[in-house]
């Protein structure tokens, strides 16, 4: 067998790398059984010391470990140098660098001379910033091993943790956080006598001062320490730290530490009592209900864990202050109860009150069954017996017939655009941009600054749609002086600051109503509750909107009260309690149309809890349109200023509408009526070639009438062009300007905005105009056909 082993070793130079590794792993058994000397085996593997592959070096080290006590000093130095080179090579894989550190520890354990070589280069074991996390932890273990063997501990050992400073911002016990606290725990266990010299308690206090969320890990170190002396040193330092913390309001972040300090009977309770006194008596900190309850829980732990004579005076003052001056009645009552127990009961009675017999508690849980309401989750689509629908009628009151539903406060001097009948008829008799009934700035007006009709109708003052009252006085002065003068530049700056300081919201009116369920299968065999209590509507989030506040509704019912009562009459008319009108406020952070999902939770008359969803709703592009928050007299100067270059990052676009003049007039009135600039705008005239269109119009008219067509007709063509200016405020702080040039057969729209993304919605916006124009044309054709049939019938008679 010895000759066979020798034959195998003789073939080593011609063997592959994996064969050499295989031989090294299996050789230890034969060396021990056959008692092979070093001179027979070692020289066959010595060339592997300089191998470029770490796996071959690993094979050499396996053989070296078999003859560790017989290896020469020069070989030891070469091995240590090679392992340090691999450990510091950043191009090497992390697993081989970890293996190098493990071999350094293993070889130094078997021979003292190897440890001397390792100790001479111990500073190279310090972790570096660019080292992988696993290598950093292995280096820390090697450092602790070296210090433990040498029985020499440097006072600045914790400086090595600077390469792991990211642990301060990772509050979960993973990654660098776990590595650092495992290192500190090894120090507390293996070097308990050097804890003060290493300043471990001071370091932990500094960590907690700047990073309170590390408190659970610090308390875990205290619990895992196996020495009562170490635990005392830690709690003594932490107690002194929390009792001196500035400002006192920050003590609320360390209630976990206060509970541990209060439950330790062999620790001085003055640390906890001092911290609680500074927190409660601090004039700048007001205790919330949660913080007050934590204070009282800590007081209870102190009373149970410490002699009454040692805590009576400070605890009496603390509880008396809480029971007298605390604003929350629950905290006052609880503090008064603890105060009476402290002054009238002894320690044994307090223990019996605060810590009841576990057997009694167990019997209570067995003999008193819990009564819990049933929870029902409606998962088959929207809740079948509730509907959340928009109210487009409210927008029609503003004169807008664009099939959207957002509403807003009209500016001063502009009221509703007419009755419903007049709106449906088009209202072309009235001048474009005016209203059928304008209101002055009176207390009952639409935009008065007192109790307005808007607030009476919705219970919402609409303050974010209004402008300061001083601007209205400036507008009145401008009307009297028949001019604005240089005050507009000041007003423009104030307007921009006002828009930034008071972001506007869009308001969507809804109605939430109860409806009878015809198909009971949608309820999954459950009965429909007819009375709903404590309804809460929550809405999905969007990155383009500020989160919507939940809406809470006390009561909705399928029917009213007793027959003949007022509630029964209102329910029969479709009102409360079958229906609730809602005004939903949305504050855009960027003007993007989106959709929102609606979740609902409510109770029925049997206290069962229901969870479900309602129909999702959309926020359209037109819903983002709001009037400019400025008196009407300043709309024209504002349009001129923005159009002529005061708009930041302006973007232009042009749209051509092949529609007749009357149809465009009617569309502007019904789609953009509240946004028309009511006074004259002074801008340069645009040079559009509408004359050719008028020539073709005359040519077609003459051809249809049978008159001779004259090509050399030099008569001047009168071109009539109507110009209208539209200014729209788009929240949060953008503007959309449109200039309409309307001829008999076509319209050119110039568009200006300070947000280029808005231009992408204009094609769809004007496409809806084309559809509306087609509907109007069909109605006009039907009306003319009806009139012609009536004329023929009159002629026949």
Automatic annotation (TrEMBL):
- Source organism's superkingdom? Eukaryota
A GO cellular component annotation here is:
AP-type membrane coat adaptor complex
Ranges where the AP5B1 middle domain occurs: 21-345
Set out the biological process GO terms recorded for this chain's protein: endosomal transport
Q: Where is this region: Disordered?
A: 418-460
Q: What InterPro entries is this protein classified in?
A: AP5B1 (IPR038741), AP5B1_middle (IPR048979), ARM-like (IPR011989), ARM-type_fold (IPR016024)
Know the name of this protein? Answer: AP5B1 middle domain-containing protein
Organism of derivation: Polarella glacialis
From the broadest rank down, the organism's phylogenetic lineage runs: Eukaryota, Sar, Alveolata, Dinophyceae, Suessiales
